[in-house]
Amino acid sequence: MTDEIEFRSDVTVELVRAQAQDSDVLFAARVSTIGEQSRPDEGEAEELHKRDRGLINFLMRDRHGTPFEHNSMTFYVQAPIFVFREFQRHRIASYNEESGRYRQLQPAFYVPAPERNLRQEGRPGKYEFHPGTPEQTALVSEEVRAQSEAAYRSYERMLDAGVAREVARMVLPLNIYSSMYVTMNARSLMNFLSLRRLVEGSQFPSFPQREIEMCAEKMEDLWTELMPITAEVFNSNGRVAP
Looking at the domain covering 6-236, what would its CATH class be? Predict the structure, then answer.
């Protein structure tokens, strides 16, 4: 039992590969009106004209969604398991997660940062979160750390005794970190972002758990670099997924 317990308050999101640019939306949309086209080269893709921006805005505003599907992004995500369970509610992406049956899970656990809101006020469907008191913040940190360490030591003892990984993992809490690849297109990502980020100006505001919102923020930043016009009109149209 020599593994040192790591406590983290962050998430990791990396763009592994992508075939996604604003010109993909135009290419897919215009086949409806002008038929087969030659795909624009990378230089042309950077020179979108005013009418091209207008077309993307029209598609977003009037919710013509399929042109936003002809692209792909694969993200690598490290986050606590309870975040992944929320991710997988979105059945519009492909997921592959590391398995506690086939490898020993690493002793890394999520503990809320001091600035993380802790108090929930209001009724379900209409509630707000507010900062905790210093005493609540200290209590959460102490209890999460203590229970995480105790659980992982129990896990190690069972592994050392020859118990199968799929059995020993039963004692591990939901704040242990896992990792996965998630692949989706821009339409799916916009659906995800509309639900998992609280952004001023959203037509249908959502109130996500902070930890999955941390992932969504990083994913949106990476996507915006790839498809800046699509991201811009998504925001200007109230962040409603087409």
Answer: alpha beta
